[in-house]
Amino acid sequence: MKKIKVGIIGAGGISHFHIEAYKTIPEVEVVAICDPNEAKLSFVAEKFGILKRFENWENIINENLDIVSICSPNAFHAQQSIAALKSGKHVICEKPVAINVEETESIINTVQQTNNKFMVAFCHRFASHSQFIKKMVENNQMGEIYFAKASCLRRRGIPGLGTWFTTKKLAGGGPLIDIGVHILDLAVYLMGCPDPRLVVGVTYNKFKNQAVDGGWPPIWSRVGDKPTGVFDVEDLAAGFIKFNNNATLFLEASWAGNSESGLKIALMGTKNGVQYWTEATPPLRVYGEMNGVVTDTIAEFPPVNTYRAEIEHFVNCVRNNTQPITTPKEILTVVKIIEGIYRSAETGRPVELT
Ligand SMILES: NC(=O)c1ccc[n+]([C@@H]2O[C@H](COP(=O)([O-])OP(=O)(O)OC[C@H]3O[C@@H](n4cnc5c(N)ncnc54)[C@H](O)[C@@H]3O)[C@@H](O)[C@H]2O)c1
């Protein structure tokens, strides 16, 4: 069988996880990689034996490839996704898909024009607990989901302090667009992607003068990086979202703050409620009722390598001509909510989205 050829744009921390996942699939070959940081480019290319190496990402677009993994800073995602799709490649793009709604709509239009596969690397969807909850929703075991809470909180965990991560024009924002995006996407996916109607948002930056680097990207991957020291994004954001079907979602994300930490999603339905929280033992609990008595059910799952699962899923979509798990509507809804929260925080007013 003809091998599926892959190219990687951006040789930073997350690229290692993409490449390791591709390497577990026998009919896939990672043949090219690019990064403007020459030292990092050589480090990753040598580690994984990738022969074609470019400092300019446009060279990847001109290569004969089937799939491109976009692992660059957020501000480049739209431009690079669109160029790769137009040159006939299937694209898996790291989260966030882009830094605003306008860019996201351009990507989705290009996907529709080219008919190539496009997926956002929302790896949390592939976790066992996420799929367990999704099945509960699909089998109508939740009833009507009318209230949800989603949080991704770190006490001291600012990624790449002083690099592109903390620079608004390159990242688009702080923890909301960096890690809040994962849990927001999961909530939107599990709630069946209702249309958001109204958003109220707030952002804070209280740790500017006592910021602690959170250890991501892994220190060993930061070869040749030259931090500029910029930190002009929030360190905490929260939003309250009302949907057209009258469901509501409370969302919070922090890189730093004096609170509990971990990733949590809680959905309240008319038949059952469910909560997953990384810090609980066991992490997943279903809140129900049996014979007029309230009941708690616990569920335990084997761990899943979610990066490997997402790459396997995308390769299968390309191979079998099936649709990736992230739909255009879900992709756009997540960005609309994020943009709405930032706009509301800036203006101090609720933002109508429809
Ligand atoms: N899915 C996840 O759980 C997850 C985890 C971490 C990061 N990410 C995402 O992956 C992306 C990369 O993050 P990272 O942690 O690897 O960051 P990183 O800083 O380790 O790597 C980014 C790399 O991109 C390179 N780069 C800069 N400008 C570029 C350009 N124009 N074209 C190509 N490459 C360019 C940098 O030199 C750097 O090597 C981000 O969008 C981030 O949000 C996702």
UniProtKB/TrEMBL annotation:
Which residues, if any, are the signal sequence?
none
> So which domain of life are we looking at?
Bacteria
Keyword set includes Oxidoreductase: yes
Q: What is its EC number?
A: 1.-.-.-
Entries under InterPro entries matching the protein: Gfo/Idh/MocA-like_OxRdtase_C (IPR004104), Gfo/Idh/MocA-like_OxRdtase_N (IPR000683), Gfo/Idh/MocA_Oxidoreductase (IPR052515), NAD(P)-bd_dom_sf (IPR036291)
Q: Membrane spanning segments where?
A: none
Gfo/Idh/MocA-like oxidoreductase C-terminal domain spans which residues? Answer: 134-353
Alphabetical UniProt keywords:
Oxidoreductase
Which residues lie in coiled coils?
Answer: none
Task: Using the record's annotation, list all stretches that form the Gfo/Idh/MocA-like oxidoreductase N-terminal domain.
Answer: 4-122
> Which GO terms of the molecular function aspect are on file?
nucleotide binding; oxidoreductase activity
Pfam families in alphabetical order: GFO_IDH_MocA, GFO_IDH_MocA_C
Give the protein name, as stated in the record: Oxidoreductase YcjS
Gene this protein is translated from: ycjS_6
